[in-house]
Amino acid sequence: MTSIGRASVLIGAGTVASRLTGFVRTIVLVAALGGSATAAGNAFAVANGLPNAIYAIISTGLLAAVVVPQIVQAASHTDGGTAFISKLFTLGTVALLAVTAIAMLCAPLLVQLYATNFTPDQQALATAFAYWCLPQILFYGLYALVGESLNARNIYGPFTWAPIVNNIVSIAGFALFLVLFGPMGELIAWTPGRIALMAGTATAGIVIQALVLFLFWPRTRLRIRPDFRWRGVGLNRIGRLAGWTFLMVLLAQIAGVVQSQVLSEAAKDHPGVFVAQNAWLLYMIPYSLIVLSIGTPYFTRLSEHAAAGRHEDVRADIGRSIRTVGVFIVVATAALAVASVPAARMFTTSPATAAAFAIVLVCYLVGLIPNAIQFTIQRTFYMYNDTRTPFLFTIPQAAVVVATALVSGAVLPIEFLASGLALGQSLAAIVQLVLATWLLRRKIGPLGTRSWMRGLARFIVAAIPAAGAGWGVFLLTGGVHGWTTTGIILGAVGSVLIGSVTLIVYVAFLALLRAPELGPALQTLRRFIGR
């Protein structure tokens, strides 16, 4: 437990620094693109989202599901896994180069696929951005491959801290663009040089982020060399496992395409692709800080227990992980929901646009707790080299996402399209969690669900008055038209104030309820702050 606590602190600290610099990066980007609901902003969001979609496939699909468990098992080989990882890295690099080349050749088609309702001029600008952004695929992939390999060797820090360098590079480039050209939200005056500076900056940050990880590779004590002899070390097995993962990710990408097509109708002046991406960025703060920092070390330990056949230990770690994550994720959901308008003001240009942005964020937050639990449940299947079952419970999830997106596009006014899609995403997460938990119980036996459900219920009971207190602070500051929405800095100050009050009341009520999880949670928090 001590090693997990130290790893969680290391990952959490890196995540805090990464998210803070990422905040600044996005604020400068929004300023350079004239706001979150501009024609140029949505064009850039679509183009820069293309390599991000591929990265999601690599980082949360193939690597998380297949590669990390295989690397953990390869550590028991006589060579420490050197031969296996050499072949794996060679194959991965070749595949990444091929995917990147194909994506760049298909850039106009990809933009048209994701942004069907953009005007021809907006599609042309998005395509120009895409040619500069798509090379990120290669470096996102290398970053994920090296980073997950470091994690599998219990070297957690670099993977979490490297994005800070990316953010610093991006902040400098976007700030330079803003100084040279000012805000450019409209489609006119986007010369090749301006396009290169904007999109090239985004790609340069990803390149440097990947290269930084290679500096830490010597800690693995593995000497990797190109090896094109891909037989004999179980790569066929990886291919069979990855087949289900590929199908699962394919479903997710189909759902994402449908969502993007619906959102492209809000090409400007209303919450669209850019607003949805920035709302997701806020949503990911508690997810990455809490779920990933605590869950990732458990992931490695779960792999070890599953590989050794210690099923009781696996079940115990599942419950422990969910309760530990839950005590933090519940209050984070409450705090971010009641502070959603001031938080949104950091990414918008007026209180009115902040209020519209906040609705999208709250709709995403409905799914935060289910997604936090799903993180542990789904990765437990991966521990047993089972990628088929996650594919099966992804089918209804993707179906709900697609259905709610199409319904939203058909019945909702354009100003609520993004909110409808965000709510549909959250409903799909709930459906997926229920099905995944049932299937995992069938696979490894009782999960102690009642135990961690009682814990979550205690957390939610404490979070209700805490959220009420935070909302009261927001109203006392003037609400939507108060001082917390008058600017970016005051929006940040207001968010911290509201969140702090929510947290204090939450802890007080957990103490009144004598929640057994409160003590360990406070110890984790103190250890995190101290380090």
Span between termini: 17 Å
Structural class: mainly alpha
- Treating each run of at least 4 consecutive H or I residues as one helix, how many helices? 19
Indicate the radius of gyration in whole angstroms: 23 Å
Q: How many strand elements?
A: 0
Order of helices and strands: HHHHHHHHHHHHHHHHHHH
Helical content, roughly? over 70%
User: In what range is the share of β-strand residues?
Assistant: under 5%
Uncertain stretches of 5 or more adjacent residues:
none
| Major pleated sheet | none
Give a short summary of the structure.
One of its GO terms (cellular component) is plasma membrane. It comes from Microbacterium protaetiae. The chain contains 19 helices and no strands.
Please characterize this protein's 3D structure:
The protein contains 19 helices and no strands. It is mainly α and 531 residues long. The protein folds into two domains: 233 residues, no CATH class; 288 residues, no CATH class.
Q: Secondary structure elements and their pairing?
A:
Blueprint: H1 2-32, H2 39-74, H3 82-105, H4 107-114, H5 120-133, H6 136-152, H7 157-181, H8 192-214, H9 235-263, H10 273-307, H11 311-338, H12 340-345, H13 351-365, H14 368-383, H15 388-411, H16 417-444, H17 449-476, H18 488-512, H19 518-530
Helix pairs in contact: 1-7, 1-10, 2-5, 2-6, 2-9, 2-10, 2-14, 3-6, 4-5, 5-8, 6-7, 6-8, 7-8, 9-15, 10-11, 10-13, 10-14, 11-14, 11-17, 11-18, 13-16, 14-16, 15-16, 17-18
Give keywords.
19 helices, cell membrane, about 525 residues, lipid-linked peptidoglycan transporter activity, Lipid_II_flippase_MurJ/MviN, transmembrane, 2 domains, mainly alpha, globular
